[in-house]
Design a protein that fits this description.
With 400 residues, the protein is of the alpha/beta class. 35% of the residues lie in helices and 26% in strands. It is built from 11 helices and 20 strands. One of its GO terms (molecular function) is oxidoreductase activity.
Length: 400
């Protein structure tokens, strides 16, 4: 039986381990935390959003980054001090701009493919993850942004995704709780939401039942090719595997470098708040449909009856887990403005580092070293794409 090590137990690592063990592979899942899904897969925006498949390699992203550099609460915050990692990442980001349309279409196709696997796995393993199939509503506050969204919709349609334009009146029919002035929106009824931490934890438990050896609280210290296999070292202990799959998020860059490979993942920090809807008035005033507000770059998801998750922003500041009050404040203000009846006394803030590659596409498949595979760099779409990329890499490993 083929022996494979999966490095990292976030959403990509756990889905990869599951896809492999279902193929009869002997899997060891290695994670530095005591449990699965304790970093970027802990408290994200909750959206399973093929409608958010547009890659960022567009001149609008560059203009916004430059425009917002002086704002500490900016939706996209680019810290000006340079590092070689940041400079090399942005050079590759700019180089990928001609592939904007092609990569957006490819991402939409992956996102649609992922749904089938994720929903089937949740049903097969009886995982309750607060899944809500109410669609996602993108909202726009001015004509220019709404018209630009029409172009994005045409690209998404080429990838197989249909979303429809809605007037302000139709927007409120979709989500009656929404307050504010909007020019228009786009509604994708096939999108959905769910709690990434609940799903990943549940699937990790399923992996154990199926025979995956989970080594939690253990950090990989070295990787090396040896006699046609891959040696994985954890402190003084080491084991040989027929293959390894690197699903280590922002740590993937260092692991790849130890094997002589360049995988230019950058840690793009995002923030979220979880609002506890403890009273009936707040539950009634909170949205049931998931939203994406283009102006603020914030998303919201209703998780069960008593939680509202709001997430977003992008901060280029290296490996930094600090939860800053000036970055959390816009999320709170958005709730207070768009859903004024929601009580925000009890709010849990969080920050996570999205592992983002310059072309905004995940790296999925074999590396340069034989026996080494990658499933990493999903950026802001790890929750949306993971089930598809796990199936892709598992098929490659099993067939090798």
């Amino acid at each position: 039986m083929k022996r494979v090590a999966v490095l990292g137990a976030g959403i990509t690592g756990v889905t990869t381990a599951y896809a492999l063990v279902k193929r009869g592979v002997h899997v060891t899942l290695i994670e530095r935390h005591r449990y699965a899904a304790m970093e970027t897969s802990y408290a994200n925006g909750g959206q399973l959003s093929a409608s958010h498949a547009e890659v960022w390699n567009h001149k609008a992203t560059i203009l916004n980054a430059l425009k917002w550099m002086a704002r500490r609460d900016a939706p996209l915050l680019l810290h000006p001090w340079p590092s070689w990692h940041k400079l090399s990442w942005f050079a590759e980001f700019l180089a990928a701009m001609p592939a904007y349309e092609r990569n957006t279409i490819a991402t939409a196709r992956m996102a649609i493919a992922a749904r089938e696997h994720l929903f089937a796995w949740a049903q097969a393993e009886n995982i309750d993850f607060d899944h809500r199939r109410a669609g996602i509503l993108h909202v726009y506050r001015d004509k220019a942004s709404f018209e630009r969204a029409a172009g994005v919709s045409r690209l998404l349609a080429q990838g197989g995704l249909q979303r429809r334009a809605v007037t302000p009146q139709e927007m409120r029919a979709v989500e009656p709780a929404l307050q504010g002035d909007f020019y228009g929106g786009y509604y994708t009824d096939s999108d959905s939401t769910g709690d990434i931490h609940k799903f990943t934890s549940g699937l990790a438990d399923a992996c154990v039942r199926l025979g995956v050896a989970c080594r939690y609280g253990e950090e990989v210290t070295a990787l090396a090719r040896e006699h046609g296999k891959v040696r994985v070292s954890i402190g003084e202990d080491s084991s040989l595997f027929d293959a390894v799959v690197i699903c280590a998020g922002t740590a993937s860059r260092t692991m790849a470098a130890s094997l002589g490979e360049h995988v230019n993942v950058y840690p793009v920090k995002g923030y979220s708040i979880t609002v506890q809807l403890d009273d009936a008035a707040s539950r009634a005033a909170a949205p049931s449909v998931s939203l994406l507000d283009d102006a603020t770059k914030l998303v919201s998801s209703r998780l069960g009856e008593d939680r509202l998750r709001v997430a977003g922003t992008a901060e280029f500041n290296g490996v930094n887990h600090d939860i800053r009050a000036d970055r959390i404040r816009p999320l709170l203000q958005w709730v207070e403005q768009c859903f004024p009846g929601v009580n925000t006394r009890k709010v849990v803030p969080w920050a996570g580092l999205r592992p983002m590659l310059p072309d905004m596409l995940p790296k999925v498949g074999p590396g340069k070293a034989p026996g080494v595979y990658y499933n990493t760099g999903h950026g802001h779409l790890g929750w949306t794409l993971a089930a598809a990329t796990a199936e892709m890499v598992a098929t490659m490993v099993d067939g090798a």
